[in-house]
Amino acid sequence: MPTVQHFEIPVDDVDRAQKFYKVVFSWSMQKWSNPTDPSQEYFMFETSDESGNKGIGGGLMKRQSPQQTVTNYVTVSSIDEYTSKVEQSGGKIIMPKTEIPDIGYILVFMDTENNMLGLYEAKK
User: Domain containing 93: what range?
Assistant: First the structure.
C-alpha cells in the first residue's frame, strides 16, 4: 500500500532552519550532494519517536518560490500508473516525473483541494 515515506521542508534561511529543527526535534541534517545539480543545497535527516523507533525521512531545502509549502512524498510502485490516477481524479501535475540518479524518480502534483504532494518510485 502506498505510504508517506519522505517529506520536504522549503525554507528561506537554511542555517536558521537547521538550528530550529535541531533544537526543537533534535534532527541532525547531512548535506546530500545532488549529482544532477551540485549547486542545489539539500539536507537529509531521519526522524524517530521518543522511544527511538525510526520514523519517516525528511529533507530541507531553500524555498524555490513563495508558494512552495511542505511536500509529503508517497512511495508508489509506478509513478506512471499513479500519474494517470491523479489526472483522472482531477489532480494536476506540477513537476513531471524526474529522475534522482541512482535513487529513483519523483513527481509533484496538486490534489483537487490545492494541496501539493509528491510521488516517489525507487529505482529497480
Answer: 3-122
Which H or E element spans position 25?
A: helix 14-25
Question: Residues in the chain, how many?
Answer: 124
Domain count, the chain: 1
Contact 61, 12 (CB under 8 A): no
Q: Say if strands 42-48 and 54-62 run parallel, antiparallel, or are unpaired.
A: antiparallel
CB 8 within 8 A of CB 61: yes
In Å, what is the CA distance from 122 to each residue of 5, 51, 98? 11, 28, 12
The CATH number covering residue 100 comes to: 3.10.180.10
- Please write the tens of the pLDDT for every residue from 75-113: 999 999 999 999 999 999 999 999 998 899 999 999 998
pLDDT tens per residue, range 19-53: 999 999 999 899 988 777 777 789 999 999 889 89
